[in-house]
Design brief:
Layout (H helix, E strand, L loop, with lengths): L2 E5 L2 H21 L8 H12 L9 E8 L2 E10 L4 E9 L8 H15 L4 E4 L6 H9 L14
Parallel strand pairs: 4-5
Antiparallel strand pairs: 1-2, 2-3, 3-4
Helix pairs in contact: 1-2
Length: 152
């Protein structure tokens, strides 16, 4: 397996954005943060706020994850300030999950982050996503905040 990150082209970005809006809305619903009604609109607004110029938004790096010619996923890194970046999204497409692509892609993101001068990378993971949490912990990420809720 040879994982490389390639800057998304405009077609890849449009496909990703369609997926990302629906996926983000579903993740927010699943986590109990949003109700079904209006979730897709909220997700679209959030993506528009974060990427006002789409894939050409300054300090945002959107990549297609490749294994050879096979597109296995995507990752979005943002430079928040001179020292800190944030991974807004990483997805390994169905059929490619559980094969080590996520881990390899995260290692490639770290290389790119260092190249652009970052000293630290943050990310968000939904509490229920134990697989992703385990991966990030393996890679040296530590929890900095934990938000807990209880339904009454």
């Amino acid at each position: 397996m040879t994982v490389i990150l390639k800057t998304m082209n405009s077609d890849e970005f449009r496909q990703y954005l369609d997926y990302a809006i629906e996926n983000f809305a579903n993740e927010q619903i699943k986590s109990g943060n949003w109700k079904q009604e209006g979730a897709n609109s909220k997700a679209a607004e959030e993506h528009k706020r974060l990427l006002p110029d789409g894939p050409n938004t300054d300090n945002n790096y959107l990549f297609t994850i490749l294994d050879g010619d096979l597109k296995v996923g995507m990752v979005w890194l943002a430079k928040k300030d001179d020292n800190k970046g944030f991974i807004y999204d990483i997805n390994i497409w169905k059929g490619n999950q559980g094969k080590g692509y996520g881990k390899q892609a995260m290692k490639q993101v770290e290389i790119i982050a260092k190249e652009i001068g970052l000293k630290m990378i943050g990310l968000h993971v939904f509490g229920y996503n134990k697989v992703a949490r385990g991966l990030y912990e393996q890679l040296g990420y530590v929890e900095t905040n934990i938000k807990m809720e209880k339904s009454l």
